[in-house]
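fwd from M.: "can u put these together and see what the complex looks like"

so here's what she sent:
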Amino acid sequence: MNWDFIMKYLPLYRKAAVLTVKIGTAGILLSVVIGLVCVAVQYFKIPVIREITTAYIEISRNTPLLIQLFFIYYGLPKIGIRTNAAACGVAGLAFLGGSYMAEAFRSGIDAVETIQMESAYSLGLNRWQTLRYVVFPQALSISMPAFMANIIFLLKETSVFSAISLMDLMFTAKDLIGLYYQTTESLFLLVVFYLLILLPVSLVGSLVERRLRYAGFGT
Amino acid sequence: MSDPVLEIKHLVKRFGDQTVLKDITLTVEEGEVIVVVGPSGCGKSTLLRCINALEEIQGGEIRLKGAEVSKTSSNLAKIRQRIGMVFQSYELFPHLSVLDNIILAPTKVQKRSKEEAKEEALALLSRVGLREKADSFPRQLSGGQKQRVAIVRALCMHPEILLFDEVTAALDPEMVREVLDVILGLADQGKTMIIVTHEMQFARAVADRVIFLEEGVIKEEGSPDQFFEEPKTERAKEFLKTFTFERKRSRV
């Protein structure tokens, strides 16, 4: 192992890691928003838009991120929308993540029994209040494991960003390998940096899950 | 005499092509305790669910002090506030403490102040012997305690009528008593109630009027003494027989 090489290119990886985290975070936040909107549309059974969200979820879940990114990166300029690689990365991640988040939230909502809602209705709560105070808090803690798994999944998916020339971790590693043939060192750094990003997320995830499980469940 | 609290006229409820309630007509006066008994599947629970508009009805009408109760009416949430319902399976909200379970609807639906709702909730909890459980979560309570909390939760909305749907059916025998005592107490206070139950002793003690429902029809209706001592119909006699036991073989 060439430690000089590792020390020399450490800052480059750090920069790439920051980019990965930034784009990952932005994409994940957006996918949460998209997921919530989809779930709300389906919960309230809003006509037409509901069918559109269903179609979106199927398309998004059943195509690879790489293909989605190509569509956004090469397709948008063709219809006159000029944008940069970073924005495409965020958009691509959000497009993919939105459906996964929607499915995570939906499974949580489905797991709340109908009679819980009836119990809320019989107290005079309307549909919105029932969702807000009874269904959603329970659904959230039920969907938390899937939600955390999605975050980790999406952060890992950022590794395909290199394909649209975003200088993320994967791009940096491939670049260095191409330039210097220092394969072992480059890949070692790549693994270490992904672990540095993902291990804390995993840890926080299991803490949150344990807390939520403790906070309310088991009737 | 004042207007009846609840009027049900020619109620018909169908699930698909199966008619569960056929032409039910029932009037409940202020302060009256009605107990509905009958074999399982006779439509008792469905009747309560219709009164609370949890089920759509296919015929007839239900009126609460003149206001129509229907799943399609626009002020449904307003009407439901005036009807309290207690479920067999308690249905407390597992993510909220006992106190928050009780004050959720008073504060969010009736827009009462948190302090005032809390004060009433604690007073009601004291009355059912659960004051010290106010900060517990539902999962920390026994079945009987949960059911008492569910009753308090319904009471805190000041409903004009209370519906009890087999509220002791899921409880261990020693917990049945504590819940039934609470309901007896409510009857003594003059609350208007419709109670669906399989506890015949309790039914007899608490009821002002007993309704015998079978195959979606009110087969018999009368005072508890009359119904339990001299039921008029053969069906009611047979039904009541299922609650008594006799040994055919003589003891040695």
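replying to her w this: Chain A has one domain: 13-214.
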